[in-house]
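Field: sequence (string)
Field: structure_tokens (string)

Example rows 1 and 2, in order.
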Amino acid sequence: MLNAATPLLSVANIDQSIAFYRCLGFVVVARTLDETSREVMWVMLASDARDVPSAQTGRDPIRLMLAAHGGVSHEERKMRPSFAGMVWYLECDDVPALFAQLGDAGYAPEPIETLENGSLQFFVRDPDGYELAVTG
């Protein structure tokens, strides 16, 4: 039986992507460097720096891996159905605060909507065009 799922996103600029996901509360918990250039080639991000379940909430951290691939522009990625078709849904405790934080950082989230069940939701794209839905 499955216990967890961790997406691996291929990104054009790993530093830009790390900055975006830090706005969502992620921290780098592991990284791999290229042996020759010493540039970061892969990172594991987690919603908890200790990468262990929170004693306060009992929740496991959310994990995300980023791999540098180079060469594919933001516009090219948005046009590729294999990337454009994926939407990652993230739940948070304070949707308006996260919306404001992303907007202040220049990421231009779409307007917040109120869903039929009363929860709030907005969409935002990361620097590589991956779509995230933030709800709560």
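Row 2 begins here:
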Amino acid sequence: MTKLAYGCAALATLLLGISPVAQAELEPISDNRMGEVTGQAFMNIENIPGNGVDYTRMTLGIDVETRVNIDDIQVGQIDGGTDFSAQHLALGHIARNDGETFNGVTYNEGEAIRGLADKREK
């Protein structure tokens, strides 16, 4: 038992002794240097001025394929009012009959009908 305790103590000392060797320092960069950084992010947020109202647009850099059915949705509910309220909201749908055409593409019964951005090949 004492050998195990001495072994654990030696291992802990070794690991704790190594940690100061791995040091990193965070340094702030200037706005000019930050302006030189380019790339593509997962999420892009931009403010758009309007006529008396400013808008914020958030763009997600992803392709999403979804079929969602929502019975009741309320977004931005404040003091008894909502910004958006809907019942029986559906995003995407399934073809109910063979030969159903949507955006120039023909679907068979039971196939997921896709939007403009992701037309399937004929």
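free_text_note (row 2): Residues 2-18 form the longest helix (17 residues).
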